[in-house]
Amino acid sequence: MRVINKTVRKWVKSVLLYLYKKMEAAAEADLPKFANTPKNLRIELPRRIFSAHRIYIGDDVSIGPNALLVPQTFYPTHVMSHPEIEHDVQRFNPKIVIGNRVTSTGMLTIAAMQEITIEDDVMFALNVLVSDGMHGFENANEPYKYQKMWKIAPVLVKRGCWIGQNVVIMPGVTVGELSIIGANSVVTKSIPDRSIAIGAPARVIKTWDETAGKWFPVDDVA
Length: 222
Hints:
Blueprint: H1 2-29, E1 42-43, E2 47-49, E3 55-57, E4 62-63, E5 67-71, E6 74-75, E7 90-91, E8 95-98, E9 103-104, E10 108-112, E11 115-118, E12 123-124, E13 128-131, E14 134-135, E15 149-150, E16 155-157, E17 162-163, E18 168-169, E19 174-175, E20 180-181, E21 186-187, E22 195-198, E23 203-209, E24 214-217
Parallel strand pairs: 1-4, 2-5, 3-8, 4-9, 5-10, 8-11, 9-12, 10-13, 11-16, 12-17, 13-18, 16-19, 17-20, 18-21, 20-22
Antiparallel strand pairs: 6-7, 14-15, 22-23, 23-24
């Protein structure tokens, strides 16, 4: 009986490994044509990618499942339009740039109407939103989905950052080089290089002292 159980387990493991490799191959083969030709790119299924010709991706990038990459060329889209309202269509010329060796656990949303740049070696935890524009809310008597996009401004996440789980990065923000954004934070203002920021809105709580070679709370920094 033990021999049979061992054989069955080995067989199940082999089948699962085979299916996983087939899924990996299918995911890679089904990638759209981007603005460039990245090497060793992995974007797991399921995924939603729009206007891929406006997306530049570096080499050795790995993005987990349920990603949404969308350079928004116009608004409102069909699903965001009211069938009985004549909408003024906004037109955009967006671009998304993702550097080399960028990684995401999963559920990464990058939505650009102007430009979003993610530099090399950035690490995204699960469920991160990066957007360079917002739904308008100038009129509290009209559903917000039918109002114009506004506060559009480019976003830059610099080299080597660690963006924690459930983080939201808002329009016009620069996240400084090798900075850390703690989980559940909402980044509404730019964060300096080599800083740790947390909260909603995010605030810097620690900075890196190059001379001492360690992090210091902001109250202790001269």
